[in-house]
Amino acid sequence: MTTTANFQAGLSVRCEALHHAYVANGKANVALQRIDLTVHAGENVAILGVSGSGKSTLVTLVAGLQRPTSGHLYIGADDVALMNERELLQLRGQRVGVVLQNPARNLLPYGTGLDNVTFAQRSARGYRRHQLPKPRQLLEDLGLAHLARQRVNKMSGGEQQRLAVAVSVGAAPGLVIADEPTSQVDRASRDQIVELLLRVGRDYGLTLLVVTHDPHVARALGRTITIHDGLAHDRGQTLEQFTNVNPDGSIPLPHDLAQRFAPGTRIRIIRKARGIELIPDDKQ
Q1: 264 occurs within a structural domain
Q2: Most buried among 49, 111, 209, 242, using CB within 10 Å?
Q3: What gap in Å lies between CA 101 and CA 244, rounded to an integer?
Q4: Total Cβ atoms within 10 A of residue 31
């Protein structure tokens, strides 16, 4: 990389008891039950999960597009849940870059590659504006110089999505979020997009958070966090889940455990110094 731009140091992401619900057709729906996880600064992480699992909701929260219903979501040292509208706008415009699933939604269709990178830098103010990468230099550094004068509506889907990656780092953010960036391209383009994402993460020191349903993409990122039924399952961390004791003393189990332990299952209770352990009794 030859750019002399001053990119922000990679931003960490930390969720503490993160919960989000919404109302549709008069009915309350829980998108995220309780998420406790940490993504370290400069780390590459894949968020894996089927449609409707809650992974896209997590992206909109991390991107500052909405606030969580409850809990805390720290981007760096700042809690998104406590930000006002102006602070959320600054987060989206300067600190977090986003690549959406549909390439056309990332870009100005009648603009060139240069136009699009320049437009992405419009939110920068004061001294930061002079520290941003030069649009033409950025495209050259990323191997996309041939797109500088080409209009978006004349590009292939793979070219549009790679340009979208360049646009996402135009404002020199500390975190890049890509929501299903390879779902609408062929295998060759998929590999090029993943390679480009890893490159900007490595060379600019950014934190990468990539939502995908493609195991190939997840493996390329290194660490994988799976979202299932609004809960996070992270092989790299001890899984903690929380529930509340009902007034009658019963304890509702998380959905995945309730499926394993049918009503009437006999449970052994082992008392320990710092808590209890529940084990199904195979001898019943």
Answers
A1: yes
A2: 209
A3: 37
A4: 21
Alpha carbon distance 212, 51 (integer Å): 10
Answer whether 59's CB lies under 8 Å from 100's CB.
Answer: no
In a domain, 60, yes or no: yes
- Residue 196 CB contacts under 8 Å (≥ 6 apart), including other chains: 142, 143, 162, 165
Range of the domain at 275: 252-284
pLDDT digits (tens, 9 = 90+) for 93-146: 888 999 988 877 889 999 999 999 999 888 766 545 677 889 999 999 999 999
Question: 28: alpha, beta or left, given left = phi > 0 and alpha = psi -120 to 50?
Answer: beta
195: Cβ contacts below 8 Å, ≥ 6 apart: none
The answer to whether the predicted template modeling score (pTM) of the entire model surpasses 0.90 is no
Q: What is the 3-state secondary structure (H, E, C) of 247-266?
A: CCCCCCCCHHHHHHCCCCCC
- Which DSSP symbol is given to 238? -
187 within a domain of the structure (yes/no)? yes
User: Is the residue at 246 inside a domain?
Assistant: no
Strand, helix or coil for residue 160: helix
Q: What are phi and psi of 54, to 5 degrees?
A: 115, -5
Q: 44-48 and 13-24 as β-strands: parallel, antiparallel, unpaired? A: unpaired
- Secondary structure class of 223 (helix, strand, coil): strand
Those residues whose C-beta lies under 8 Å from the C-beta of residue 186, and which sit 6 or more positions away, are 158
